């Protein structure tokens, strides 16, 4: 399914995620439970947590927090309530027309020796729903319609739309070819024309991004407005995005916030994240904010397997353009084919590498468990311990390709662990921790996790931290837990970020810091499935579709992705997006450069200085430009920023002119980057000339010469010496000129003509 479809289904898939009982180990003393290395808070509290709460909150605030938690959970249950209401109202249906007009329907009722618990269309050719008002229809012949004729026609129309929608989705999901997906969207278009809500959501996003349909911002806006009127959270989110970015409408942050709020209240997970992070950045960070974002990040973290979840590829367009030689992290097609060739020839390392690449996805390669299993199987048969361990992982977690089997997983983990493989040791530790195929044994689990952690394997570090946190098999030790969570987070394990965020949010083992917790939670939330659109936006840009790319980057930028903010600003800066007016290009680029710079991106900070220096999208302001360059220089040690500071000191722009400070910054730039040495050398040469001219201008030359005594310096006959030197120089020049006139060079390429000799008479051709 495409990313548009995943956006359409992400809320349901994440909120409906359930956790098996075998994945849970409860510690009643701490009031927490561990699920695949995650620490989930329950009603009970640890001692340190209770002490912190007594210090920070009164009983009234705790009640308010509980209410906030209930309200947040209610958002995810709105859909379930909507499904329950019809069953409650069913018994109050009143018959329309028929032989019992106005009488209440009786459920269940008997018709054709079959009981019906709801209205039915059986027995009618027109498909109109009816019910009996007594139990036995055959005996009493009391009946009436459950709907008016208008309602019946509308219901049949919606059923027809649903059938068309399902056909389109079936074609879309069963094929990976672009042509077939375009055919599928023709069915979705037809269903959308029939007011099918899900079809309208998918078509509107396809029109917005240009996915399988021609990009049309105005048409997508009309569909979003229609969806918003019907109360669709996805429509409200998209309309808020249009007002925030000014696409197809006049930009209005106030309207955007209103639509975002309604969408979040409707249960849109992305908007919940956006609004909570917005409250954090607006300095409204309190315990309620931490609680909200914890509840939001829970389904994201639950969706992450022990392999760490899908890889999020972050490629900055500005870095690619300014540093063409720098690797972007993408694998070229010919390089992948080369590794495939090596794997087919039996290269075990190539097989393991390709197996991991297809297992996790990323670097331009789609996730493919079938291919991963085949490569791992080949390498495992050759005796590779790493491949055995990853086969154990695949069997332990299960998928559509590999059936879940604890026994098979245990066999592979044991083989890999016996060979000293940390992945196998960690997998064996999981088996003993949760009793998968073996009796639960915390001591053995701790032993294998320690072995894996000593070799730097992030899963081993994560699980070891969880055992210390919950006191499973060891004495509870929050400092040790923090240590191992930090180590796992340095390896990029997202569940480690999640656990660290909870510890900072509750003040467990560390000083309570809501700001730190929210930053860590943000890292978790950005690993949701919606982050995969970063790659689709990049591919659109590489295919030359800048309009589609900029819209996708702008949407992700609204969700706080720094890479998306900088990439959107870069495309606008290059004026490659025709959907944005020329007068609006630089102001919007300035906005997103500012957002990216606030998240620590050096190039964005320098760009802010450039925009204020040259007056792009704002008035020329040398002082503000100087501030941005100084921040980039001090915080990120940017050679470009140092060079710019040197230039501004040299010219006296935004700061008092100071040639000495200019030279200092030029020297610092040369030390910071070898690439800056040549421009710095030229700048210093220029600076030397300026300094010399300035020095000469400041002194009186006549006064200097008046103090010079030539007789004292060169002797009383210095004029004779000078005349002799001049005569010698003149003679040398004359002699050199005479030698030039005597040597007349022959023009190159000319040779004396050689007369052709006639051939001997005996060799002459006959006349």
UniProtKB/TrEMBL annotation:
Subcellular location: Endoplasmic reticulum membrane
One GO cellular component term noted in the UniProt record for this chain: extracellular matrix
Region Disordered: start-end pairs: 1-68
SMART domains: FN2, SEL1
Membrane topology of this protein: Single-pass type I membrane protein
Compositionally skewed regions (Acidic residues) per UniProt: 1-13
Cysteine disulfide partners in this protein: 105-131, 119-146
GO biological process, one term: Notch signaling pathway
Span of domain Fibronectin type-II: 100-148
Signal sequence range: none
UniProt entry tagged with the keyword Transcription regulation: no
A Pfam family assignment: Sel1
Predominant subcellular localization, coarse grouping: endoplasmic reticulum
Record's keyword terms, sorted: Disulfide bond, Endoplasmic reticulum, Glycoprotein, Membrane, Notch signaling pathway, Repeat, Signal, Transmembrane, Transmembrane helix
Transmembrane segments: 257-281, 718-736
Classification via Gene3D superfamilies: Fibronectin, type II, collagen-binding (2.10.10.10), Tetratricopeptide repeat domain (1.25.40.10)
Keyword Electron transport annotated: no
Family to which this protein belongs: Belongs to the sel-1 family.
Function according to Swiss-Prot or TrEMBL: Plays a role in the endoplasmic reticulum quality control (ERQC) system also called ER-associated degradation (ERAD) involved in ubiquitin-dependent degradation of misfolded endoplasmic reticulum proteins. Enhances SYVN1 stability. Plays a role in LPL maturation and secretion. Required for normal differentiation of the pancreas epithelium, and for normal exocrine function and survival of pancreatic cells. May play a role in Notch signaling.
PANTHER family xref list: SEL-1-LIKE PROTEIN, SEL1L ADAPTOR SUBUNIT OF ERAD E3 UBIQUITIN LIGASE
Protein name as catalogued: Protein sel-1 homolog 1
Lineage, broadest ranks: Eukaryota, Metazoa, Chordata, Craniata, Vertebrata
């Amino acid at each position: 399914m495409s990313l548009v479809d995943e956006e359409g289904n992400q809320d349901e898939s994440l909120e409906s995620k359930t956790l098996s009982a075998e994945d849970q180990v409860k510690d009643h003393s701490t009031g927490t439970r561990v699920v695949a290395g995650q620490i989930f808070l329950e009603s009970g509290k640890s001692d340190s947590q209770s002490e912190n709460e007594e210090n920070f909150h009164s009983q009234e605030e705790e009640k308010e927090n509980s209410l906030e938690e209930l309200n947040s959970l209610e958002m995810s249950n709105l859909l379930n309530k909507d499904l329950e209401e019809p069953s409650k109202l069913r018994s109050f249906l009143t018959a329309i027309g028929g032989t019992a007009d106005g009488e209440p329907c009786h459920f269940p009722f008997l018709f054709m020796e079959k009981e019906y618990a709801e209205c039915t269309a059986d027995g009618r050719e027109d498909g109109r729903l009816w019910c009996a008002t007594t139990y036995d229809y055959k005996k009493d012949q009391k009946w009436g319609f459950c709907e008016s004729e208008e309602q019946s026609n509308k219901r049949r129309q919606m059923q027809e739309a649903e059938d068309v929608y399902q056909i389109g989705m079936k074609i879309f999901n069963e094929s990976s070819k672009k042509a077939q997906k375009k055919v599928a969207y023709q069915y979705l278009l037809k269903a959308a024309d029939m007011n099918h809500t899900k079809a309208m959501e998918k078509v509107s996003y396809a029109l917005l991004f240009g996915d399988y349909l021609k990009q049309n911002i105005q048409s997508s806006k009309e569909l979003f407005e229609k969806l918003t009127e019907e109360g669709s959270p996805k429509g409200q989110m998209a309309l808020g995005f249009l007002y925030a970015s000014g696409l197809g409408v006049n930009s209005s942050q106030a309207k955007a916030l209103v639509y975002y709020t309604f969408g979040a209240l409707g249960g849109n997970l992305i908007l919940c994240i956006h609004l909570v992070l917005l409250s954090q950045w607006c300095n409204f960070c309190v315990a309620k904010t931490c609680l909200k974002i914890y509840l939001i990040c829970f389904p994201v973290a639950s969706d992450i397997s022990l392999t760490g979840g899908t890889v999020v590829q972050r490629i900055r367009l500005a870095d690619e353009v300014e540093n063409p030689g720098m690797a972007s992290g993408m694998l070229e097609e010919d390089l992948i084919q080369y590794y495939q060739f090596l794997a087919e020839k039996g290269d075990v390392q190539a097989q393991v590498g390709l197996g991991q690449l297809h297992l996790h996805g990323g670097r331009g390669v789609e996730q493919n468990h079938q291919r991963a299993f085949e490569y791992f199987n080949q390498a495992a048969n050759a005796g590779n311990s790493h491949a055995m361990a990853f086969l154990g992982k695949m069997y332990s977690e299960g998928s559509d390709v590999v059936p879940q089997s604890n026994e098979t997983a245990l066999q592979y983990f044991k083989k890999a662990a016996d060979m000293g493989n940390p992945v196998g040791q960690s997998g064996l530790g999981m088996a003993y921790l949760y009793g998968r195929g073996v009796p639960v044994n915390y001591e053995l689990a701790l032993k294998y996790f320690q072995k894996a952690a000593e070799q730097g394997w992030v899963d081993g570090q994560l699980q070891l931290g969880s055992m210390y946190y919950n006191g499973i098999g060891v004495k509870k030790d929050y400092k040790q837990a923090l240590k191992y969570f930090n180590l796992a987070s340095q390896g990029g394990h997202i569940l480690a970020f999640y656990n660290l965020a909870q510890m900072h949010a509750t003040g467990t083992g560390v000083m309570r810091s809501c700001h730190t917790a929210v930053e860590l939670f943000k890292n978790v939330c950005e690993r949701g499935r919606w982050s995969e659109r970063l790659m689709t936006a990049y591919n659109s840009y590489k295919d030359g579709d800048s309009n589609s790319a900029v819209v996708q980057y702008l949407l992700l930028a609204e969700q706080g992705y720094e890479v998306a903010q900088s990439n959107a600003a870069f495309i606008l800066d290059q004026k490659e997006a025709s959907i944005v007016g020329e007068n609006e290009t630089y102001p919007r680029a300035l906005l997103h450069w500012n957002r990216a710079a606030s998240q620590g991106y050096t190039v964005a900070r320098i760009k802010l200085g450039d925009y204020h220096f040259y007056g792009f999208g704002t008035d020329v302001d040398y002082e503000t430009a100087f501030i941005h360059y100084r921040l980039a220089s001090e915080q990120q040690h940017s050679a470009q920023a140092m060079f710019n500071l040197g230039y501004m000191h040299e010219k006296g722009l935004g700061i008092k002119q100071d040639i000495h400070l200019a030279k200092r910054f030029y020297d610092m730039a040369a030390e910071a980057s070898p690439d800056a040495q040549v421009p710095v050398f030229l700048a210093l040469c220029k600076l030397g000339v300026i300094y010399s001219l300035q020095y000469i201008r400041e002194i009186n030359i006549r006064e200097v010469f008046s103090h010079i005594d030539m007789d004292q310096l060169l002797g009383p006959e210095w004029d004779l010496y000078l005349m002799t030197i001049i005569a010698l120089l003149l003679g040398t020049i004359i002699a050199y000129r005479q030698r030039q006139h005597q040597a007349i060079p022959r023009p190159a390429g000319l040779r004396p003509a050689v007369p052709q000799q006639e051939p001997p008479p005996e060799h002459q051709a006959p006349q």
